[in-house]
Amino acid sequence: MIRFNCDYSEGAHEKILQRLVETNMEQTPGYGEDVHCDRARKLIKEACNAPEADVHFLVGGTQTNLTVIAAALRPHQGVIAADSGHINVHETGSIEACGHKVLTLPTSDGKITAKQVDECYNAHINDESFEHMVQPKMVYISNPTELGTIYSKDELEELSKVCKNNGLYLFMDGARLGYGLASTANTLSLEDIARLCDVFYIGGTKVGALFGEAVVITNNMLKPDFRYLIKQKGGMLAKGRLLGIQFEVLFENNLYMEISEYAAKLADELRDAFAKAGYSFLVDSPTNQIFVIMPDKKLDELRAKYSFSYQQRIDENHSAVRFCTSWATRREDVEALIKDI
Amino acid sequence: MIRFNCDYSEGAHEKILQRLVETNMEQTPGYGEDVHCDRARKLIKEACNAPEADVHFLVGGTQTNLTVIAAALRPHQGVIAADSGHINVHETGSIEACGHKVLTLPTSDGKITAKQVDECYNAHINDESFEHMVQPKMVYISNPTELGTIYSKDELEELSKVCKNNGLYLFMDGARLGYGLASTANTLSLEDIARLCDVFYIGGTKVGALFGEAVVITNNMLKPDFRYLIKQKGGMLAKGRLLGIQFEVLFENNLYMEISEYAAKLADELRDAFAKAGYSFLVDSPTNQIFVIMPDKKLDELRAKYSFSYQQRIDENHSAVRFCTSWATRREDVEALIKDI
Amino acid sequence: MIRFNCDYSEGAHEKILQRLVETNMEQTPGYGEDVHCDRARKLIKEACNAPEADVHFLVGGTQTNLTVIAAALRPHQGVIAADSGHINVHETGSIEACGHKVLTLPTSDGKITAKQVDECYNAHINDESFEHMVQPKMVYISNPTELGTIYSKDELEELSKVCKNNGLYLFMDGARLGYGLASTANTLSLEDIARLCDVFYIGGTKVGALFGEAVVITNNMLKPDFRYLIKQKGGMLAKGRLLGIQFEVLFENNLYMEISEYAAKLADELRDAFAKAGYSFLVDSPTNQIFVIMPDKKLDELRAKYSFSYQQRIDENHSAVRFCTSWATRREDVEALIKDI
Amino acid sequence: MIRFNCDYSEGAHEKILQRLVETNMEQTPGYGEDVHCDRARKLIKEACNAPEADVHFLVGGTQTNLTVIAAALRPHQGVIAADSGHINVHETGSIEACGHKVLTLPTSDGKITAKQVDECYNAHINDESFEHMVQPKMVYISNPTELGTIYSKDELEELSKVCKNNGLYLFMDGARLGYGLASTANTLSLEDIARLCDVFYIGGTKVGALFGEAVVITNNMLKPDFRYLIKQKGGMLAKGRLLGIQFEVLFENNLYMEISEYAAKLADELRDAFAKAGYSFLVDSPTNQIFVIMPDKKLDELRAKYSFSYQQRIDENHSAVRFCTSWATRREDVEALIKDI
Fold first, then answer.
1. Which residue of A has its CA nearest to B99?
2. B208 near B259, Cβ under 8 Å?
3. DSSP H or E stretch at residue A120
4. Which chain C positions have a beta carbon within 8 Å of D74's beta carbon?
5. Is the pLDDT of residue A128 over 90?
6. Residue B218 — very low, low, confident or very high, per pLDDT cuts 50/70/90?
7. Are D76 and B229 an interchain contact pair (Cβ–Cβ within 8 Å)?
8. Residues 20-79 of D with CB under 8 A from B
9. How many contacts does A have with C, using Cβ atoms within 8 A?
């Protein structure tokens, strides 16, 4: 069985494992206050051209999302998100468990627009019952989105502007950020993101690390006491250096982008093959996630050899499914799949 | 200015005030453990033909909703509601502040169907990522709804059946229950409601009382330790007898239904007048709330003399607004308004 | 049975009831935005000489405490309180239910000292594991305390100073504030309290009202969006004018102090009678709560005629019990009790 | 600088690293549903002789504590713990952030007694204001405690009995469980613990793993939907197999006990050396944590070469400090330290 169902089926990039082995018996202070974390923070701030940013390392995506949002909001405030947003659908109500409503916007491609945000904000604030409604205070976007789409630089500029105008924090979930930046359709740089977002994270779990996400906070309002929140929410790793070491490796020789580009390229080849074979797509995603629509019969056939994830029924005989590539995908597996399409 | 904007513009029915005056210097134990609360509980259980029910008195609607829901759910569980449901829109995220997601269903008339509930439940439970999603465990309905509509006995039977089949608690917000029961379109009795819901409340604030809601719990699973929750959430009135006295008066000589019928009748007259004058309605509501669509010019004219609440824009020149009657509405005010329509 | 067990056994002062009757059919806007609330706010700000303060009305004490604390703190912050503090012992964990730890200080008389606060703060902040501990951000005191004692002006000045130095908010629970201000031992004025605390409340429930507490916020940091919190926590009364009317009456002709002094005087007489009869006290409380130590036999005797509350066992044959007076206590009842001592 | 300050200064046992390298490119399902987690679960259940237990893997201790407690308690329920308990002091209020009060018992050695638990329970339940207080529902103990002490089999039997009698869940935090089981003073087996506790965890982070704790749930009441809670609280590792692999290695050839015994032996040698040198101890701890009292001058001298953690001031010239050994401590470092004492 060859797994294309997600981008976290394997362990870590070999260079990361190797570094973990090399540093294993070093004695370091705990909780992210070691030299590896320090160096990783420095490398990430350089990559973002954000010398004043605060960088923190957390273990996983849900944990990161809930910690960032809990740290930013007062009890009566909520976070605006696409209805398909990960925090709205697939985190078991973690944001609500921290006390906050997710205010959803409809979307078909996983993205939300500046106009939608502005309207949502105004509908909540300029109503006579405004105090009876949740106060929007943050906008959550994923880039790439859960549907593999990405925001253009123009789109992010507009979102950022609307947020600033309305006093909203802009938070980007970058669980798959590398695969977005590596897309041939991408127009954003890490520097743009650091400039336009108030806080975002660079995903490691799905991009070469065993686990780990690097939160970058550029808005000074969001910086105070963030480590208290990490600890309270259970995200402060005792051996914090494990996270530092992994992000050191990912950011010291451009490895993060290199392996992302590898996955993006394989995804492009696979996407082309689907298109050439006459299949259409649920959504036009230019990153490592491909949402292809295929006849159920064909899918059954493929299931004998490949694992992929079910997305939704399209009609009586067709379904949309998701194929993912990643840093770990083997070229020969993609080639085999292309042949079998 | 004559206020038709809501059903809580005045104090309490004169009989309630009178009883409060008469009992004022009685010395009673606090926190709902007095003879008045006991008697009110007895009267309500009789009215519901639910001798085994637990009855509790709380001060207001939001407080009641959040207390009932917090008492019923585990942290990963959520409550299904209409997207127009009061807990979803107008309680400042109180349910989320207790840690629970409101899972919304689309509706145009404020009501949700058994089919919608069933589909929502199955979509959450029969998915391979089910543990990554909130687990539906309760269904919240309002009767009358926020749009003045009511559930028929058949509809409530079906909802109840789907809930039982799926292990969901059915909770009815009865903030305006009297006005629903008093509607000429109504097919439900208090007894039906007690039989079909696991928990519901009988609203006092909008139906003759100064304030107060009577929660009726019929499902044994929801009974244990409910008073702890009332206290923790700030809803346990020190002088609990104030609530007992009010519900005693409301339920001792059928006053609750009598004053509800009075309001329903005035609403019917007003509704007929709007219809006769050629206006259409946003929603066909048979209770004390009337959502009429009128030209903005006409509305401006009426605003000089009457207060009503703005609902939504219909087109460039028309808006939907809400007129409410209540136990306190003066017949002459309705007559004046009818003339001015 | 004559009840001395608490100070909320009766309804409201007759002037309040009378005003409720007089205003009953007035039509007012809801949620505290009516003329009665406005006037009550004005009267209270005048009484406190705090023209810039925000004044809000809530229904009860637990609700007020949890709303104020939830509004003030970020998730990792806690509130320092006496271990006997109401929020620590008798509110069913309402503060923790809002996510915050109560950091307790030992006390034998219900009061905490500036020195204790300073030490507690420093122990949490100047530790190498400071981020692993809750961050103290608020100090909660009750005045009178749960043991009937009161803070002197000097003590409150010192507490206030330590709080300001350490960036802590000082919050006074004034559920029985009238009885404290009316004590012959009192050295504080409402004006002092408004100047020295960041937020406090003036209790109505135990001092003449049917129910209701008036929160006074003097620190600008605590003002924004407070009404959102009131709504979310279930404390925003639909017919808010009920609270406004009550506080209008209490503050329009010095009624609040007048009835408090009445209760204080009766307590003094009762206290003297206990002392004269040779009984000692658990704590030297100069307000309406008397904690007297008596032989169990004598207590059994008194129980036939009087209700009082059990505090704690002292030795094999003696217990401490609490007798309360209030605005509603009848002079003849006190005289009867004095005779029976 | 040689670090004796804690037991999480290094990475992982070499066998664990080696296995991670060997399995790195295996493709497995995520979220703990892989073959490695399955096998680790099996090995742990065998080691505990608890075939019916549920075993879950989480990343860290705070996360595990908050997830277990949030899963077990209703909103009005609290957890009893030693005042020195980790959840009470060093988890930034994580339990309160989940809504629950920690009810503390005084202790000088980190342990609590069955008698204390019984008294605490009864004080909360058999009081006339019981509904105004938090309801105790769980007892949290650490074994070894934060002060390095351990519970005897008799003590745990008694605690378990009191808990069962009072309907309380008994939860053991086993962050350092290996070092407790390996103590020469120990009388408990994993099997005893599984039999006597309702839920406990076997710590990996401090005992040979990179990170990870294995929760063992034996009480059926605590089993339903636990994975939902893990996900919601951010503890469900995408690459769950990382945890499975580590616990497989730790439990497949008795490695867990072997490395724990190694650390325990080194601690014994160090403890003996301190005693021989005439130093006394803050607490008589028979595990890998040694709390020794030394002159400040001597400590300054040692600080030049060794890192250890400061516990508390004893008198003007003496302090208590903590030295830890672990699976990773080098014998030569202990020997050097012994010489320098």
1. A97
2. yes
3. helix A114-125
4. none
5. no
6. very high
7. yes
8. 31, 70-71, 74-76
9. 43
| Token digits of residue C11 | 């309804």
Distance of CA C108 to the CA centre of its chain: 18
Instruction: For chain C, say whether A295 makes contact (Cβ under 8 Å).
Output: no
Answer whether residue C311 shows pLDDT above 90.
yes
The encoded tokens of residue C276 equal 């004269």
Q: Give the ipTM of the model, two decimals please.
A: 0.97
Q: Do the chains contact at A231 and C99, CB–CB below 8 Å?
A: no
Q: What is the CATH number of domain D14-254?
A: 3.40.640.10
- Taking only the tens place, the pLDDT of each residue in D115-141 is 999 999 999 999 889 999 999 999 999
pLDDT at B123: 96
Mind listing the pLDDT tens digit for each residue in B60-97?
A: 999 999 999 999 999 999 999 999 999 999 999 999 99
E strands, chain C, are 2-3, 54-58, 77-82, 102-105, 135-142, 169-173, 199-203, 213-217, 280-281, 289-295, 306-307, 309-315, 318-324
Of C17, C235, C238, Cβ closest to residue B234: C235
B71, B74, B225: residue with CB nearest D225: B74
Please report the residues numbered 223 through 242 in chain A whose beta carbons come closer than 8 angstroms to any beta carbon of chain D.
228-229, 231-239, 242
User: Which option is the CATH number for B14-253: 3.90.850.10, 3.40.640.10, 3.40.50.300, 3.30.70.890?
Assistant: 3.40.640.10
Q: In angstroms, what separates the C-alpha of B68 from chain C's closest C-alpha?
A: 12
Q: Which of B267, B141, B270 is nearest to B198 (CA)?
A: B141
User: What residues of chain A lie within 8 A of the CB of C74, using their CB?
Assistant: 71, 225
* Subunits in contact with chain A (3 or more CB pairs closer than 8 Å): B, C, D
What is the phi/psi pair of residue D79, to 5°? -120, 130
Q: How confident is residue A127, by pLDDT bands cut at 50, 70 and 90?
A: confident
The superfamily (CATH) of domain C2-7+256-340 is Aspartate Aminotransferase, domain 1 (3.90.1150.10)
pLDDT at B127: 85
- Which residue, among A96, A126, A303, would best test binding to B if mutated, counting the most B CBs under 10 Å from its CB? A96
| Residues of chain A contacting residue B312, judged by C-beta atoms under 8 Å apart | none
Delimiting residues of CATH 3.40.640.10 domain(s) in chain A = 14-254
Interface contact B97, partner A, CB < 8 A = yes
Q: How far is D223 from chain B (nearest CA, A)?
A: 13
CATH 3.90.1150.10 in chain B, residue ranges:
2-7+256-340
Tell me what the mean pLDDT of segment A277-284 comes to. Answer: 96
Q: Of the candidates C89, C97, C131, which has its C-beta nearest D92's C-beta? A: C131
Asked if the Cβ–Cβ distance from C78 to D90 is below 8 Å, we say no
Name the segment(s) of chain B with CATH classification 3.40.640.10: 14-253
Among B131, B135, B231, the residue with its CB nearest the CB of D132 is B231
Q: Which of D4, D15, D22, D59 to mutate to test the interface with A (most CBs of A within 10 A)?
A: D59
C181 DSSP assignment: H
pLDDT of res. B155: 98
Secondary structure of residue A72 in the 3-state scheme:
helix
Cβ atoms of A113 and A97 closer than 8 Å: no
The CA distance from C161 to C168, in Å, is 10
Measured in whole angstroms, how far is the alpha carbon of residue D284 from the centre of its chain?
Answer: 18
Mean pLDDT confidence for B102-109:
97
pLDDT along chain D (341 residues), means of 10: 94 98 97 98 98 98 98 98 97 98 98 98 93 98 98 98 98 98 98 98 98 98 98 97 98 97 98 97 97 96 95 96 97 96 89
Going from the C-alpha of A305 to that of each of A324, A341, D136, the distances in angstroms are 15, 12, 54
pLDDT band at C1 (very low <50, low <70, confident <90, very high): confident
Smallest CA–CA distance, residue D239 to chain B, in Å, is 15
pLDDT at C127 over 90: no
B272 CB burial (10 A radius; 0-12, 13-18, 19+): exposed
**How long, in residues, is chain B?**
341
